[in-house]
Every structure is written in structure tokens, then in C-alpha cells.
Amino acid sequence: MSSRSMRAVVVHGPGDVRIDERARPVPAEGEVLLALEWGGICGSDIAYWKNGASGTASLAHPLVLGHEVAGRIAALGTGVTGLDEGQQVTVHPAQLVGDGILPARIAGRTNLYPRIRYFGSAAFDPHTDGGFSEYRMVPATQIRPLPEGVDTEQGALAEPLAVALHAVGRVPDLRGRTVLVNGAGPIGSLVVAAARHHGAGTVIAADLSAASLSVARAMGADETRDISLGQALPEDVEVVFEASGAPSALGPVLRATARGGTLVQVGNLPGAAVSAALGDLVTREITWIGSYRFVEEIDEALLALRDGLDVTPVITHRFPLDRAEEALAVAADPGSGSSKVMLRLTAP
């Protein structure tokens, strides 16, 4: 491989992921060239690899995966100020397409803007390549410097932590309140940490996997419920976060929510028709709130990491870039005991 090229994790179709050699990008005006160091595998990366699609976005041509990344600035394009070569940074992976104007009722909620290019997404054609590569050109406006004491592995967790903080922030005040998190995968376990960070009183985590529940405990859960062992969800919980995205969980989760309580849906539900028992939504007058990605909570995430919030227990596996397919398989396998699987994108 020449000094002008780089390696990237590229999905070509269902079940077809390759380590491709690509030209190393050169930053133009207002752009930054990153030398990526760490990337976290997300459910959307797995979906593109397994199915050639994530949600309603389908591959039309090869796509570089990855939107949870961090690294160091390798070069600055002209006109970029306030950043330095060698600086450790992460990336806000969303870029609005168009004028960015939103209706007054959702002013500032840029995660709800209808046209967004997101790292590692096939929603547009041409697709938006992600950051599972040795280098990536990034608009300077999407760069977020890492605070002192936060390394690039932690920095790659800022994006999923921002998702969790956004979900927790959908409830005005968690201080002292009892919280249930249903689904203790990577996002659910980060919701546990985010709820604790926001001052929740008692945090209960529920899942079908003992390994996932162990991670949730390490992230701050006071109690756990192993559904696979027949342990029931708690009753009358004032604030519930549904992080599994499983339609079959909706009925039991609504029943676990207290009358007049709040249910935040952070787990992605299928885009197709599903069967679910929803009667308790009405009879218990539950407030059911959606939570989608994040706005600028990645900044809050970085401050929380700086101030000592330790989310590293969510990391269970680390692989080098050239073993990306193995890493995806481990992340996708419920029997692997994995939570967040990390890719080392460049040699240490």
C-alpha cells in the first residue's frame, strides 16, 4: 500500500464486507483530514453487512461503514481555525442538507430535520461514507475536540453516549426517580449510565442476556431482571426507557409503566407492520415519547467523560481493522456476550 492510499471497511452487499484500498483524501477549504484511531460498531453497521440495508436505506453501491469514530487531526484545509494538527477529536456525524430551516414548533431540534447526511449511511445516493477507515475528510464544523483526559477510544463512545443522553433528556427531571431500562445492549447500558449521570434514584435494567445485564450493572444499574429466567419486569415504574426495539416487549413494558408515567422509546422499532399489545397506553394514560439520535448532546457527552463518567465497561471486544468482518460477527451474535465492539482503525 502506498503512502497515498489507505484501508477502509467497505460493505458491498449483504454478507459482503471487504477491506478495500482507497485513495487517501486531501482536505479542501473548510475541511479537516482525520487519522482515525477507534470506531465502535453499531446496529446499523451490522444491518448493512447482514441485509444490505438499514431501516429504509438500501445499498446502491459500496459504502464505508462506521459513525462512532475518533482520531487525530492529520491535516487542515485552508480557512480552518481553532483546530491543530495532532489534536485528538471525535465527529458529530450529521450534516444537514439544504437551508436547515425547521418549523417553529421544533426549532433547534436538528435531529428531526428531514434531510440529513449521516456518516456510514445509504439514505442518499451517492451514499455518505462512514469513518471505518484509516483516514477520513470531515468538514471542520463536524469536528469536536476531545477534552483533556479523554482518549480517542473513549471519544469514539461519545456518539452513542449522546444518543443515550438525548433519550434521558427527553424527561425533564430524573433526579431521585426510579427508572427502568428495558434492553441492556450497548445503547440501553449507556442509557443506564446517562440516567445515573442525570441523578436518577434507582435504576433497574432488564434483558434476556446475563452478559448484557452484567454490563448494565457495571454501568450503574442498581437492580437487574433476567427475562430469560422468567424474572418479571417491575411494576408501576414512573419513568421507563425501552431500548430493545423489540415489538414483543412493548406490551410488558407498557404494563410495567406506572399509571400516568412516561415511556421513552429509544430502541429503533421496525418500519414494517408489527403485532403488539398496546392497550395499557390508553388505560394507564402513559406518555409515550420517541427519541431519535441527538442534537448537540455529543458536547454534553464529552463533558461528562471529562468529568469522570466511566462508560468503558460497555466495551467488551476490540479488533484490528483487518478483522472487521469477525468484529461484525461478534457484535451481531447474541451468544458472544458482546456489548460494544471496537475497531482499532490504525496501528497503535
Termini separation comes to 18 Å
Poorly predicted ranges: none
Please indicate the count of domains: 2
Going by helix content, strand content and strand pairing, the class is alpha/beta
Strand content: 25-35%
CATH class identity of the largest domain: Alpha Beta
CATH topology of the largest domain: Quinone Oxidoreductase, Chain A, domain 1
Number of separate strands: 20
Average pLDDT rating: 96
Rg value: 20 Å
Architecture (CATH level 2) name of the largest domain? Alpha-Beta Complex
Superfamily (CATH H level) name of the largest domain = Medium-chain alcohol dehydrogenases, catalytic domain
| Major beta-sheet overview | 7 strands, mixed
**Percent of residues in helices:** 10-25%
Helices and strands, in order, run as EEEHEEEEEEEEEHHEHEHEEHEHEHEHE
Query: Based on CA inertia axes, which overall geometry fits?
Result: globular
Summed up, the helix count is 9
Give the tags.
348 residues, alpha/beta, Quinone Oxidoreductase, Chain A, domain 1, Rossmann fold, 2 domains, six-stranded parallel β-sheet, 9 helices
Explain the layout of strands and helices.
Layout: E1 5-13, E2 16-23, E3 31-40, H1 43-51, E4 53-54, E5 57-58, E6 63-64, E7 68-76, E8 88-91, E9 94-96, E10 116-118, E11 135-139, E12 143-145, H2 152-155, H3 158-169, E13 179-182, H4 186-197, E14 203-207, H5 210-218, E15 223-226, E16 237-242, H6 247-256, E17 257-265, H7 279-283, E18 287-290, H8 297-306, E19 315-320, H9 324-332, E20 340-344
Parallel strand pairs: 13-14, 13-16, 14-15, 16-17, 17-18, 19-20
Antiparallel strand pairs: 1-2, 1-6, 3-7, 3-11, 3-20, 4-5, 7-8, 8-12, 9-10
